[in-house]
Design a protein that fits this description.
Order of helices and strands of chain A: HHHHHH
Number of helices of chain B: 29
Helix content of chain B: 55-70%
Strand content of chain A: under 5%
Strand content of chain B: under 5%
Largest sheet of chain A: none
Number of strands of chain A: 0
Distance between the termini of chain A: 21 Å
Number of strands of chain B: 11
Number of helices of chain A: 6
Structural class of chain A: mainly alpha
Oligomer: heterodimer
Distance between the termini of chain B: 79 Å
Shape of chain B: extended
Radius of gyration of chain B: 39 Å
Helix content of chain A: 55-70%
Largest interface: A-B, 63 and 80 residues
Chain lengths: 165, 618
């Protein structure tokens, strides 16, 4: 396997995260809450590793990380400072995209605003960070997101299979 | 320019200080922005500018969605606020040292809705505004919508289409032509006259549209011309008579239609016209690059062809001049197009130009690919342009230049020149190519049509996300943990689950049997099997069984295998987590399993691994 491919980067990160998760000893491991928590942690680890492994900065990676961070800061509405910090993280990512026509802002009119094209609303909900993009970029992001998701699933499945041996 | 900036900033600061801030009910100048996320966005821009060292002329203050007006000085292009619209009361001042710098910054943005130039020098105003790539430039005014009859539109990423009285109507109007084709040419004094003489040359005659259409239509009814033929077939049809390299053959495809209307006259011109039209045809075919081949475009080609012929009829030297155009660089507009195809014949020099034309054409066309390379670049817009030039030519010679073919060709010309349509078309192309890329990613996507493509994509994304969730669940390991979540499983605890599930994989061991849960385990077994083969059908199977969001039972099937992962003798040192798990199994079932593995005599690393491997494979 190519040592620097998306697959390998994600696999390394994810395994590292898994190690950390499994290293924790819960108080009562068989309680549903504990299970749920673990599931959440693993899923969060998977998403985070995926977002970090992506080399080309994409809007959805930023949105995923932001969601994770805001969730980890507490389930209530996030405070301004935290929000700004996480926003800055996203901005760092999105800055790279400026050259690639990042349209996280609405394309504005003056007085009579043109706004963001409001099609494919369901897709926008599915793809993280999709709300603020125009349709064209949304499709772009979706393609990349699908690619990364399939990689993620493949690697996780392989890990699961490996465990099953 | 420094002095202007300082003065300006000072004046703006004074004005900002006078602004009232508050709720709109109190008639304040500055009111809250539209939403919290918008306010957060603005704050992000401001913080970014602060980090990078912009000069804050006021203190940044925010209360909920209300942001106090803020003037930022010494903003540099590496700050986000120089490029992104805040949609809030934040005004960045970028100091430039030259006009070019300002224009460069303006044009470097991806947005281009409005721009403003403030100056007293009218020449500078004109020059600068011409250089700015925005939809509208306001001179000595803030951005505004208007005057009303001016189009309100943007370039690049700004806006779709155009607003404004005329423009809106045009944008929403597509010209549609309806052609009534009569079976025979209709009689009018004009048409009769035209047929008698050179019918298509008289500039003064204003032919009724009907006649034009009918004559044009007749010309189209070339028996060799099959509108439904493909692009290549058409080319072959056109070229095949030429391959025999004889004049009489050249004449043959064109005789039948001609005999209908023109009769005796103009026979002498046939060869010229035929050749010229064939050349034109070839160029059109080549120029298209095999892109569009539809009956309509073939018809257009025919039309253009016909028009090519028209000058040939009256002007004897026309094709000849074409032949020499490449060398002479004459004033004809078609030089560029025709010249390139005639490079070879013109180099032949001494021959009569007709002969050279002919030779050139046969040289060029028979190895068809040779010529087409010339025309890779002149694609649709150029085709439109050449059709246009052909039309111009024919117009110049006062031929019929009917409105009908003009309208047919106009669609392409319009697309080529109208910036709105270009932008719209580009946008549509971009979306189409992205949809195509997505189609390749999503399995079974070619079976669906475009309309439901989006649904397919959405389903696939949902499915992938679900898979991730499932796999995250499965990696919990400790099937015991999963048991309480399973409603339909008997409540004998996780041990049963583990045992039941484990029995699938350890039947050969005979250590444990699963008396209960047989049906469930069978399901799991099947699902696990399916999962390996095809995730999709696995999911469908599960859904069919009424297990919708089903991580549980499936996870059991997978995680029973993960029970084996508790075996500390797994793998090498590269998997420390396995080791740590194996050390302290916390649940009773775990202990059972580890005891089991112990009893199996897990002395050798490889041995136990092999054991497990052979056992667990369904």
């Amino acid at each position: 396997m190519n040592p620097s491919s998306l697959k390998s980067r994600f696999a390394t990160r994810f395994l590292r995260a898994l190690t950390q998760i499994h290293a924790r000893k819960p108080i009562c491991p068989s309680s549903p809450t504990e299970i749920f928590r673990r599931y959440r942690r693993i899923k969060a680890a998977a998403d985070k590793s995926m977002a970090y492994s992506v080399r080309s900065r994409r809007t959805w990676t930023g949105a995923v990380l932001w969601k994770l961070r805001s969730r980890s800061c507490g389930r209530r509405s996030v405070k301004t400072s935290t929000l700004v910090k996480s926003q800055q993280a996203i901005e760092k990512k999105t800055r790279h995209e400026k050259q690639n026509k990042n349209t996280t802002t609405t394309t504005g009119g003056h007085g009579v605003g043109f706004g963001v094209e409001a099609t494919a609303s369901e897709l926008r909900e599915l793809v993280p960070g999709g709300e603020a993009m125009d349709y064209c970029n949304l499709l772009d992001e979706t393609a990349h997101y699908i690619k990364c998701l399939t990689t993620q699933v493949k690697v996780m499945k392989k890990i699961a299979d490996f465990y099953s041996l | 320019m420094e002095s202007v900036a300082d003065v300006l900033v000072k004046k703006v600061k004074e004005k900002v200080a006078k602004l009232t801030v508050g709720a709109p009910e109190d008639d304040c100048d500055i009111t809250p922005v539209v939403s919290e996320s918008s306010a957060n966005f603005i704050e992000g821009l401001v913080k970014d500018a602060k980090e990078k060292g912009a000069t804050f002329c006021q203190e940044y203050k925010r209360d909920g969605n209300l942001i106090w007006p803020l003037l930022l000085d010494n903003v540099r292009p590496d700050m986000r606020i120089a490029w992104e619209e805040p949609f809030g009361p934040v005004l960045p001042v970028i100091r430039i040292n030259s006009i070019e710098e300002g224009i460069h910054h303006c044009n470097a943005s991806n947005f281009g809705l409005q721009g403003c130039v403030f100056t007293k020098d009218v020449n500078k105003a004109k020059l600068i505004s011409d250089a700015m790539e925005t939809g509208t430039v306001q001179i000595n005014s803030a951005p505004a919508r208007g005057p009303d009859h001016f189009p309100f539109q943007g370039l690049k990423d700004s806006g779709i289409g155009s607003q404004g009285v005329t423009n809106s109507i045009n944008m929403m109007t597509k010209i549609k032509s309806t052609v009534i084709n009569l079976p025979t040419p209709s009689y009018t004094p004009c048409s009769r006259e035209m047929q008698a003489m050179n019918p298509l040359l008289n500039p003064a005659q204003q032919l009724p549209l009907q006649d034009l259409q009918s004559t044009a239509r007749q010309q189209i009814q070339n028996p060799h011309f099959d509108p439904t033929a493909s692009h290549d077939d058409f080319l072959e049809q056109m070229l095949s008579p030429l391959s025999s390299c004889s004049w009489s053959d050249l004449k043959s495809p064109w005789d039948p239609p001609k005999s209908d209307e023109t009769g005796p006259p103009n026979v002498g011109f046939h060869y010229d016209e035929v050749l010229a039209s064939k050349l034109r045809q070839h160029q059109i075919n080549g120029g298209d690059g095999g892109g569009v081949s539809s009956p309509a475009t073939a018809a257009i080609k025919m039309m253009a062809q016909q028009q090519m012929m028209l000058p040939g009829r009256g002007v004897a030297g026309m094709p000849l001049s074409l032949g020499s155009s490449g060398a002479a660089g004459s004033h004809h507009q078609n030089d560029i197009i025709y010249g390139s195809s005639f490079k070879s014949p013109n180099q032949q020099g001494g021959e009569g130009s007709m002969q050279s034309l002919y030779n050139g054409f046969s040289d060029g066309s028979l190895p068809g690919t040779n010529q087409t390379q010339h025309f890779q670049h002149p694609q649709a817009p150029n085709f439109g342009a050449t059709a246009g030039t052909v039309m111009n030519q024919s117009q110049a010679s006062g031929s019929m230049t009917p409105a009908q073919p003009k309208q047919r060709v106009r669609a392409r010309r319009g697309q080529a020149t109208d910036p709105h349509s270009i932008a719209e078309r580009l946008r549509r192309e971009r979306i189409a190519e992205r949809m195509k890329a997505l189609q390749e990613l999503v399995p079974n996507a070619n079976k669906t049509d475009k309309a439901s493509m989006l649904d397919e994509i959405i389903d696939y994304v949902k499915f992938l996300q679900l898979q991730v969730k499932v796999l995250s669940m499965s990696r919990l390991g400790g099937a015991a943990a999963v048991a309480p979540l399973v409603a339909e499983m008997p409540s004998e605890g996780g041990g049963d689950c583990a045992n039941g599930g484990g029995s699938i994989h350890r039947n050969s061991n005979g250590n444990q049997t699963s008396a209960d849960n047989d049906s469930v385990t069978v399901t799991e077994h099947q699902v696990a099997k399916l999962m390996e083969e095809d995730m999709g059908s696995a999911m469908q199977y599960l859904q069919g069984k009424g297990l919708c969001l089903m991580p549980i039972s499936l996870a059991t099937a997978i995680s029973t295998a993960t029970c084996h992962s508790r075996n500390p003798n797994k793998g090498g040192g590269s998997h420390p987590l396995l080791q740590s798990n194996g050390e302290g199994p916390s649940s009773p079932s775990m202990s059972v399993l580890s005891v089991q593995s112990a009893t199996r005599g897990n002395g050798g690393l490889d041995g136990s691994v092999k054991d497990a491997a052979s056992v667990s494979k369904p």
